Amino acid sequence: MTTHPSKAGTKGVPRAARELQVLAAATEEFGRHGYEATTVAAIATRVGVTKPLLHQYFGSKQDLYLACLDPVGERLLGAVRTAMAEPAADAPPTSLRVLAALFTALEGQRDAWFVLYDATLPPDSDAALRASYYRTAIDDLAATGTADLLQSTGAGDPLDADALKYAWRGLCTALVRWWINHPDQSPEAMTQRCARIFAAARAIGLTDDEHA
Q1: How far is CA 209 from CA 152, 164, 199, 204, in A?
Q2: Is residue 47 a contact partner of residue 18, using CB atoms and an 8 Å limit?
Q3: Cβ atoms of residues 175 and 99 within 8 Å
Q4: Helices 40-47 and 61-83 meet at what angle, rounded to 10?
Q5: Cα separation of 115 and 17, whole Å?
Q6: What predicted TM-score, i.e. pTM, was given to this entire model?
Q7: In sequence order, what are the residues at sequence separation of 6 or more whose Cβ sits closer than 8 angstroms to the Cβ of residue 146?
Q8: Are 34 and 119 in contact (CB under 8 A)?
Q9: Who's near 72: CB < 8 A, 6+ residues apart?
Q10: CA nearest 25: which of 9, 49, 46?
Q11: What is the DSSP secondary-structure string of 96-116?
């Protein structure tokens, strides 16, 4: 009996559906364990297919990582761009809009943040270069926002803006990590929590009252 190519080695699951399963599992594995510690064999075991089948579908481990990274990078970059677009008069501050957009974009796949911000990518590899492209694009948006914020408070030192940009990335990463450890928290609940934290920071003088 001849097996239909779209079902070969997938236990009756169409190839397109199986590829989505692989990408979901791989994104979680890369996000949780990092590129270096993640193996194609572990991903195959999670999905219930063979390692050769994953190579047939996606190629090398790096090719599989890139197949996970591009949707994540595009989704997060698009979310930040939309959040930083010209706001309505009654819109929340930019920082809260960006965080709300990130939480919404990551819901259902929270570990995906660490696919993009993975410190274990091989230096100068295609994977590292592609991740750097998305990181730089997001950092450029953050740099615009932090520079505007500091200028509005009368602080014009470009090094202040650069330092704040890196602090902002660290804050986002810390919040996502906390969120992963609290799976019951929705994007809306996280945004409200951040609003309360920022309000507390203003109350003790850590941030500017009007612009934070």
Answers
A1: 12, 17, 8, 10
A2: yes
A3: yes
A4: 80
A5: 22
A6: 0.84
A7: 161, 164, 165, 168
A8: yes
A9: 27, 109, 112, 113, 115, 116
A10: 46
A11: HHHHHHHHHHHTT-GGGHHHH
Two tokens at 71? 């949707």
CB 55 within 8 A of CB 40: yes
Check if the beta carbon of residue 149 is closer than 8 Å to that of residue 106.
no
CB atoms within 10 A of CB 157: 9
Question: How many residues are there in the chain?
Answer: 212
What pLDDT shows up at residue 196? 94
pLDDT digits (tens, 9 = 90+) for 34-92: 999 999 999 999 999 999 999 999 999 999 999 999 999 999 999 999 998 877 677 78
Q: Report which residue type is found at 117.
A: Y
Nearest 5°: the CA angle 208, 211, 212 is: 70
